[in-house]
Amino acid sequence: MTQWENLPEPRPDRPVQPVTPSWSAFTADPRVPANQHLRASDADRDVATRLVQQARAEGRLDAAEHDERALQAASARTLGELEPVVSDLMVASAAPGLAAGRPRAQVARVVTGWVGLAVLFNAIWLMTVLTTGHLLYYWPMWPMLGTGIPVMMTLFWSPSPEADARRRPPRRGETPQLPPAQEPPSDLR
User: Is the pTM of this model over 0.90?
Assistant: First the structure.
């Protein structure tokens, strides 16, 4: 028996977990000048690294550029250092007419819910028409309209994930970030 026989077989590379390219994945938006001096967390560096890995897996980066950017992401100290690493990898994935950045699963869930209610309302109306034997007032149009308006608002006028991130309360252990216009004067810091 040679010394190399008991070594495990090499495993194929693990597939890259898909990442949704969004600035809201960072603890604070690196594009905002007031945030660029903030220290990057391990989670921020991880998001940037995963975006670079995904771009490599999709063929948008060659091996040398992937290695260079992965090293930059891993060694970044501030959010401002992460912004140039991933800024050109942020691809708009929303279809025209849909709210920018809205996850497809959320859009599908909203539309499926509305269709389910419409089918239910029409089934009740149809069963009532069939049991009475004559045509009745088509009342399902009103609840369908009432539930359809919020569906349309969700599809076309919802804020982007970046706006959602600005409105969300800070995560546990995260200090809230003031908008640039509301920062205290530098002599009070």
Answer: no
**101 burial level (CB within 10 Å; 0-12, 13-18, 19+):** buried
Q: Evaluate whether residue 168 is within a structural domain.
A: no
Which of 171, 31, 19, 162 minimizes the C-alpha distance to 99?
162
User: Does one domain contain both 69 and 27?
Assistant: yes
Give dist(CA 122, CA 140) in Å, integer: 6
Using the structure block, give the residue that is written with the tokens 């546990």: 172
Please write the tens of the pLDDT for every residue from 143-189.
999 989 888 887 777 665 555 555 666 666 666 555 555 555 555 55
Domain residues for the domain of 145 are: 104-157
Contact 101, 161 (CB under 8 A): yes
Distant-in-sequence contacts of 180-184, Cβ < 8 A, 24+ apart: 180/32, 180/33, 180/34, 183/34
What is the model's pLDDT at position 105? 76
Asked whether residue 139 is domain-assigned, the answer is yes
pLDDT tens, position by position, 85-142: 998 888 654 344 444 455 677 778 888 999 999 999 999 999 999 999 999 999 999 9
Residue 46 in 3-state DSSP?
helix
Where do the H-state alpha helices sit in 139-188?
141-157, 161-167
In the numeric block, which tokens belong to residue 157?
């006028």
